[in-house]
Amino acid sequence: MNKWPDIASEAGTATCIAVTKIWLKPDFNTTGLHPPGFLAYRCDRTDGRIGGGSLKLVAEQLTQAAATNLGIANIQSTGCLLKPPHSEVAIICTYRSLRSSTEENDQLIA
Question: Per the count of CB atoms within 10 A, which of 13, 27, 74, 85 is most buried?
């Protein structure tokens, strides 16, 4: 929770903010905490351990679509597609634990 003031201070000039190790649980509602004018994309750790997770905030004025999250024990990754005219850009934010296995790493890069 101590990252929210830093996020708010960066929001004035940013169009995309990515944060790892968010330490949020799936039942925690961030509505009203993130800066106005941003859409939030999250992937929380769901195996009961604390730590991990990823959060991406993207300015609402950008045309965007959510991408598939990867949420496994030691890797949490969230992404979205930005769709400016004539192109498409993927923005991905990933937390990877030092405990991640070869199989988990393979899932991340697949």
Answer: 74
- The β-bridge partners of 54 are 20, 43
Alpha helix ranges (H) inside the chain? 4-10, 102-109
Within 10 Å of residue 34's Cβ, how many Cβ atoms? 19
Torsion of CA 107, 100, 22, 58, to 10 degrees: -30
Give the pTM. 0.80
N residues, the chain = 110
Task: Render pLDDT for 48-69 as a digit per residue (tens, 0 to 9).
Answer: 888 899 999 999 999 999 888 8
- Sequence-distant (≥ 6) Cβ neighbours of residue 23 within 8 angstroms: 1, 50, 51, 52, 53
